[in-house]
Amino acid sequence: MKVSPRGVGLLVLAALPLSSAMAQTPDAKPFLSPVFTDHLVLQRDRQDPVWGWAAPGTKVTVSINGKSASGTAGADGKWIAKLPALTAGGPYDLTVTGPSSTTLHDILVGDVWICSGQSNMEFGMGMLANPAPEIAAANNSNIRIFTTPKNTAFTPQDLAAGHWEAVTPESIASQGTWSGFSAVGYFFGRELNQKLNIPIGLIQTSWGGTIAEAWTSEGSLDKLSDFKDRLDTVRTKRTEAPTLSLDQQWQNWYTANDPGAKANWSDPALDASSWKTMTLPATWETVGDPDLTNFDGLVWFRKEFTLPAGAEANDLKLYLGRVDDLDTTWINGVQVGASNDFGIERIYTVPKSALRAGANVITVRAMDTGGGGGLYDGANPMHLEIPGGDSVSLTGPWQYKIAASVAQTKHFPQNLNGNPNVVTVLYNGMIQPLVPYGVKGAIWYQGESNADRAYQYRALLPAMIGDWRKQWGEGDFPFYIVQLANFQAVADQPGDHPWAELREAQTMTAKNVKNSGQALAIDIGDNPDIHPKDKQDVGRRLALTALAKTYGQKIEYSGPEYKSYKVEGSKVRVTFDHLGGGLLVSTTTPLSDYLTRTGNFVPTADPSSTAAVKGFALAGADKKWYWADAVIDGSTVVLSSPSVPAPIAVRYAWSENPVTNLYNKAGLPAVPFRTDDWPGLTVSAK
Q1: How far is CA 71 from the centre of its chain?
Q2: Within a domain: residue 56?
Q3: Which ranges constitute the DSSP H helices of 513-597?
Q4: Does 598 map to a domain?
């Protein structure tokens, strides 16, 4: 889930199709906003805004089930009428009268939830491991779905295309932006409908690989100093056309920020004897160099190779694989290629004028802006292709040298047009068009793209939640977060991990922001895939949180949550809230039996009374972490380690992909936590 400076063309709102009963104002805005269509769900028990556009001063009346409200178009042509509070029920007709008249049919009144975030919320029903049975069973006229189209904008937008539909196998498979409607959203809504027996409306507004600050308005980001430069860039973009191409902007940036450019490290005669060596292809975080373990920034690579006799007389094709994120490539000091787009295969033509008989030098400058970095893979092995001859392999040892970290440089250029990873643009294009549609609350599955900035996320996510609540003007409506699933390789030793810190930021938000909560996915992930297939349990756990915290049901909604710890000699005793009937060690996880079970996951308790609890670590005064031996003792867990005779701090599930097995008897996994207060990473705003 990479954050990249790349971009595509700015999406421009096209004229929206209108029914024959709807009229257009002179500036082509419709009489009734396109978020109101047949089959919609209105929010029960509160005034429901309905809006559209007409000539200034025009009165418009909205009626449903014997109740009505009126509004008058302002100077900008927008009218808004707020219906009196309605109780759950339907179906009804909704009639709008003014300069023209239109009637919407099959309207329900119930609870409406926003479903937003990045790819794990966008993940559609067709992406499930076994989608056919779930899609076939999705046939419920009391659940309605609406998908907001993907759109970026530098200013807040009024219009959103889309249409409401009742859930059917056809609609659940065709709505949405990635192989059907949001699976997490649907399973959340299905659980609520079953438990509450009221209509449920689900509005999907999500975009894979996106950052939280893109979903936040300018006014709220203005209060966070980290984003000042980015906001200034967007403000400039609104009023000025760029005078330099993106390529030229990057060239100027390298000149100002790259020590390698200033010292001409692309010179084939450079003395590189002090450079380190790594084997490529590989992401540099995986090669064992502690200086690169969590490094974002500039690294130069260099390799000497030998051309067979006569090969220098031809133009050659260079295959480098993929580079995260950007590269500039030279052979014998001659630039032969460059790309400002991560994830694409680098295939460059090397002119014969750049080649020499015998020994040659290839130099690659790689710029990584977040996540994994370096020359890491590709469909073709790294090589030079020689017409009519054997290729020259470029895999194996390369010399490398770190030039500068992102923290040491000025903000890098961004192509803003159409790029969803730009501050405010998704709020403007995909949230603002829904405001102030009546909603009960929101569910949020995002964080992967902010995982290298966890400390910043502690302030950013609460700011975004407060921002949405302010824009809707409905008070502190519920906002429920999916904590990041386990992902990537299992760590051999305990230590510091960015994803663990991001989960911590999510937990802090859930605990400290009013009417917020979280659902765990720490046991649901699939380590080679950032998109876990088991969305049923994610949706169910979100629904448990909502049923308990929003709807007041007396149910357990959380796994064991850290409460306190006490040092007892060489041991530590940890106490938890949310015992859910008691602690247990499970021999199964949702992933381990996902394809074989039907219904919700139920952990299988280890029959041993002294079963080992996995995932705990201890540290002493030296702040070095060691895996702990851990066993359940009544309603507590007792920890010890021969390597930590005097423990002072505890961590649980503190890695990207922790091995865990602690649950409560309600079937919910324990919440990751740490008791130490030692920041593990230097976190910069990028």
Answers
A1: 39
A2: no
A3: 536-549, 590-593
A4: yes
